[in-house]
Amino acid sequence: MDHQRSEEPDRSEPVDPVLRAKYVDFCSAQLTEVFLSLSDERIYDLVEEAARAADLHPGSLGFKAMVRLVTQKLRDSVPLPDFQVWSQEYRANPERYDVYLMGLWKESLPGDAAENGSGG
Q: SS3 string of the chain?
């Protein structure tokens, strides 16, 4: 998908919190898949690149900091649809996207919203 990512949804209509949570879950799943496909060597190369860009020394970083740097680098380079495009496509064909959801969206919502599963 060659869509530009936008952090802010279109404000002309209210955003369904379930749909928004599913979008974040979808994007997380896509980044996780790319991350897990990388070789150890490539991950360390990305850590070094990101650390240099952030003016950090890679050898002084802990594991969580390294994962955050690589994740941010991937987020900037992996083509993901913006929320508006994704939500329109999801509403038209939820089955196409549901297979990629990891279930994290259920954990990020208050009990009632997660239980009703609105938004697709």
A: CCCCCCCCCCCCCCCCHHHHHHHHHHHHHHHHHHHHHCCHHHHHHHHHHHHHHCCCCHHHCCHHHHHHHHHHHHHHHCCCCCHHHHHHHHHHCHHHHHCCCCCHHHHCCCHHHHHHCCCC
Query: Where exactly are the structural domains of the chain?
Result: 17-109
Query: Are 101 and 23 in contact, with CB atoms under 8 Å apart?
Result: no
Q: Per-residue confidence of the chain (120 residues) as pLDDT tens digits? A: 444 444 444 455 677 888 999 999 999 999 999 999 999 999 999 999 999 998 999 888 999 999 999 999 999 999 999 999 999 999 999 999 888 887 778 777 666 554 555 444
Across 81-93, b (16+ Cβ under 10 Å) vs e yields: bbbbebbeebeee
